[in-house]
Amino acid sequence: MEEQELKTEELQLEGFHCADCAVTIEKTMAKLGGVQSVKANFTAGKVKFSYDPVKVDVEDLVRSVEKIGYTVKRDVHRDVAKKKFWKDREFRFTFISGVLLAAGLAVKFLTPNPIIFEIFGRPFHLSGFFYISAIVFGAFYFSREGWASLKHLRFNMDMLMSMAILGAIIIQEYVEAASLAFLYSTAELLESYAVERARNSLRELMKLTPAEARVRKGGSERTLPVEQVNVDDIVVVRPGERVAVDGEIVEGASSLNQAPITGESVPVTKEKGEKVFAGSINLEGYLEVRVTEKFQNSMLARIIHMVEEAEGKKAPSQRFVEKFARVYTPVVVALAVAVATVPAIVFGASFHDWFIKALTLLVIACPCALVISTPVSVVSALTSGSRNGVLIKGGVYLEEMGKIDAIALDKTGTLTTGVLKVTDIIPLNGLAEGDVLKVAVSLESRSEHPIAWAILEASDNVRAEPVRDFEAVPGKGVWGHLNGTRHYIGRPELFADTAVDLPDQKLHTLQSEGKTTMLVGTDKEILGLIALQDQVREDAIDTVKKLRDTDIEVVMITGDNEKTAQAIAKRLGITHFHAGLLPEQKLEEIQYLKEKFGKVAMVGDGINDAPALAAASVGIAMGVAGTDTALETADIALMADDLSKLPYLVKLSKRARRVIGQNIWASILIKFTLAFGVFPGVVSLVMAVLLGDMGASLGVTSNALRLARIKS
Q1: CA distance linking residue 548 with residue 564, whole number of Å
Q2: pTM of the model
Q3: How far apart are CA 343 and CA 5, in angstroms?
Q4: Which of 18, 425, 442, 629 has the largest CB neighbor count within 10 A?
Q5: Residue 161: CB atoms within 10 Å
Q6: Rg, the chain, Cα only
């Protein structure tokens, strides 16, 4: 029988805001037959799963998630609306819990607090009714998650809190139980709010794409949802409007603000035949754009998807935290059991007092703040990067970038523009520049070589003469007959079979400056020299200086010749450079640099430098907007052709490592301090929730959110 093809779906979940929740969701869904894989990403609030539709219905999977307390939303592409917190059911339940707790305290201290009935001979007062009601409303959501965790034999915060509340009810400490339910529910809301703030920075990117597009068909315009716009449709974009889809300009020209895609602060001029990206702002002219990608496949949508995927990849520090939590939580739970029983059994101490201390330890046992400390920091850093045109593919690369000792930069196209420009025209034998250029332009107008393009661009006002018997000599130059005389333009080797004397002194001077030098002449004499050079980027010198100021060694690697490399390196202030390297030799060079310096990042174009990028500790591709291969293969992608993003990337990654470290050690210190304070009675049950859970979680989240404010 033919095997049924698996289906993959993604759901948006409300109320999903912790790493432990992710594990519970995955285990709950995986229990159903026919589920091939489940991946819950709490930082994105989504769950992605593959299933066999013959064996299990998607509605059964949805119900399994809803049973443990989550609200499911099907449309994951446009989840951008912010829900008012007072409309949230969990908030309303928490608020009611607080009101009932306050009512119970008021009845107890301000009224006679009458007895309603007795339980096992002990009176149950009216205040107890309010406390129990407060517990029901306060624990309504997290107790379901706790029960699901108990069924999977997992210690998580919801299960431990549910156990602590149940224990307090058993010994009739209703005030403590109600306080725990209300405070923990409040802490969950605050934590959810903090995680939502981290998510919202990415959602802001999603809002940059208009919900509708103006499509021109048959001479008329129709406004359609962007999801209904098809490839090859013509979309009209007027001044001041955002481009709704990726496409190619077929009519008009304008300046566009591409900051959402590339992070470029300066508008870019776009003309007919050039690409435009969804989310860009049309600043000036009327544009007609032929759609090249569906909305779901636009560059902006792919960036958002990649950032969400990156959020799900665990950083090294996150793996350390989870390993620590797997040991820490069971140890503290075991300690709580011992505290509840040993003093009363062995030493005859008050069971009630030590049971309360054990419940307090249960509350302290869950490393909630510790577990969220790294992912929330990573989310903030990744979204900061995406806003500034830097796409980081995961926490592992973010942390690795923060540990970089050296950065290897490819010369051509990275430190330089990759476009040759004429720098010198030196006429000889009493000729003028125009005479030399006329010969050069006449010959080069027949060539397709980049050197020819550069010479023609520098000679706009020079008219080419007719050329006969034109011939290109690969690697040397070209020649042809002008007015019956054979003329040449090319490298010195082109003149090897002629009787001319080469201007060695001038050649040496220009070549020592790293310039490509072309000779123009005839069989009898050299008419002049034309020197060209790849131009150093305007921001390259400042970028290299900023990188060196952070104690990172900057190394230039290139396939160009030694003299050219030396001249460029000297101009940029780079002391380490390696020239004449083939692509496979660049890979070997990266391995050598890793042995010499330690962690090495490589910056290149993402395609020609692919082997070297793969060998580096972190591979960084530059100017990849619209380049699918580079976008997919790089560890980090600089969307714009902008070298100044490198110092920002280094600053962001170093700051992220520092914040992650602060969060981890602060969380551990708070937990251990509170645990030791339980035994002398300094730390109460309520204090454990306020400081160990609510306070610590808010503290690490607020610290992490600072990363989202870092700008390039």
Answers
A1: 22
A2: 0.72
A3: 60
A4: 18
A5: 30
A6: 34
- On whether the CB atoms of residues 489 and 520 are closer than 8 A, the answer is yes
Say how far apart CA 506 and CA 554 lie, in whole Å. Answer: 32
The catalytic residue among 20, 158, 246, 410 is 410
Q: Which pair of tokens denotes residue 554? A: 């900057």
Residue with tokens 């909630």: 368
List the structure tokens of 157.
């915060």
Residue 615 to residue 602: CA distance in whole angstroms: 9
Cβ atoms within 10 A of the Cβ of 458, count? 18
**Contact status, residue 189 vs residue 90, Cβ threshold 8 Å:** yes
Tokens for 328? 């820490």
Amino acid identity at 36 = Q
Catalytic residue status for 60: no
| Residues 613, 174: Cα–Cα separation, whole Å | 62
Mean pLDDT of the chain: 84
CA-nearest of 489, 495, 496, 497 to 520 is 489
174-206 and 140-151 helices cross at what angle (nearest 10)?
90
Instruction: List domains and CATH numbers for the chain.
Output: 7-79 (3.30.70.100), 212-297 (2.70.150.10), 417-535 (3.40.1110.10)
Q: What is the mean pLDDT of residues 241-254?
A: 91
- pLDDT at residue 260, rounded to an integer: 66
- Tokens 């020209």: give the residue: 253
Evaluated on CA atoms 61, 369, 99, 178, the torsion sign reads positive
Who contacts 690 (Cβ-Cβ below 8 Å, separation ≥6)? Answer: 183
Q: Which residue has the tokens 């937990």?
A: 671
Largest CA distance in the chain: 125
186-232 pLDDT, tens per residue? 877 776 766 666 666 556 666 677 888 999 987 788 999 888 999 99
Alpha-carbon distance of 672 to 379, in angstroms, equals: 27
What pLDDT sits at residue 80? 44
Distance CA 509, CA 425 (A): 13
Cα(450)–Cα(245) distance, rounded to whole angstroms? Answer: 34
Task: Collect contacts of 325-333 with beta carbons under 8 A, ≥24 apart.
Answer: 325/367, 325/370, 325/371, 328/365, 328/367, 328/671, 329/155, 329/160, 329/365, 329/366, 329/367, 330/155, 332/361, 332/362, 332/364, 332/365, 332/675, 333/155, 333/160, 333/361, 333/362, 333/365
Report residue 518 CA to chain centroid gap: 46
